[in-house]
């Protein structure tokens, strides 16, 4: 368990999280210049780095360079998704999705840190829901969901990743953060934000097409 007095590192976590988003943004901008044939290899590298970060976290904390390299690569692999919605529904959809994500993320974060309730019980439910979403996404590759099915899937994603924001901030408040674990905690928050953004973006994208 993290020491109870280590909540002093919360500002460091938030700064690191903000820098992670900045590196992801730079990666997305750089994605314009990346050949299409490289997106799949980069996605594989991103997945391997993510698995390594969480599997080996008990043995060795991840470093700041590892975090920023990961988020930069993540930004590159995010580019095709953003470019698709820019081309099909316009920049307003992407901007609105990002703004909505920021508002939802910030609101839940404030509630989680101010609330006296313990939300640790959500961990098991959220993991089960996340695994179900992964299974559905694999199923979608074989038998694509209808627009209604994808809309429902995206709403579930919003609930699941909003739950993870609530869970992660609540755990930071209750257990604190060791200095060496700041990059890993920031990575968790980054993943919450990006996945929440993608879910909201899909919703706005589907609704824009139906108008």
Automatic annotation (TrEMBL):
Q: Where are the transmembrane segments?
A: 12-32, 38-56, 68-87, 93-112, 119-145, 151-172, 184-207
**Per its record, how is this protein called by name?**
Putative integral inner membrane protein
Annotated family: Belongs to the BI1 family.
Q: Name one GO cellular component term.
A: plasma membrane
CDD domains assigned to the protein according to its UniProt record, in alphabetical order = BI-1-like_bacterial
Q: Which organism is it from?
A: Neobacillus massiliamazoniensis
For this protein, the record's Pfam families field holds: Bax1-I
Q: According to its UniProt record, where is this protein located?
A: Membrane
Signal peptide span? none
* InterPro entries, per database record: Bax_inhibitor_1-related (IPR006214)
The way it spans or sits in the membrane comes to: Multi-pass membrane protein
Primary residence: membrane
Q: Does the keyword Protease apply?
A: no
Q: Which UniProt keywords apply?
A: Membrane, Transmembrane, Transmembrane helix
């Amino acid at each position: 368990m993290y020491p109870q007095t280590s909540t002093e590192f919360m500002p460091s976590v938030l700064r690191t999280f903000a820098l992670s988003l900045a590196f992801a943004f730079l990666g997305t901008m750089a994605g314009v210049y990346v050949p299409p044939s490289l997106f799949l290899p980069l996605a594989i590298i991103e997945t391997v780095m993510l698995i390594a970060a969480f599997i080996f976290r008990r043995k060795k904390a991840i470093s700041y360079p590892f975090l920023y390299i990961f988020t930069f690569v993540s930004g590159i692999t995010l580019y095709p998704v953003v470019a698709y919605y820019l081309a099909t529904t316009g920049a307003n959809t992407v901007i609105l999705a990002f703004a909505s994500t920021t508002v939802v993320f910030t609101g839940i974060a404030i509630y989680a840190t101010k609330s006296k309730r313990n939300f640790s019980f959500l961990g098991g439910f959220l993991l089960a829901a996340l695994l179900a979403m992964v299974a559905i996404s694999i199923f979608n590759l074989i038998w694509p969901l209808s627009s209604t099915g994808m809309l429902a899937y995206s709403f579930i994603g919003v609930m699941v990743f909003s739950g993870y924001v609530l869970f992660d901030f609540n755990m930071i408040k209750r257990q604190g953060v060791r200095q060496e674990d700041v990059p890993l905690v920031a990575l968790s928050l980054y993943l919450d934000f990006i996945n929440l953004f993608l879910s909201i973006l899909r919703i706005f994208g589907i609704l824009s097409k139906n108008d």
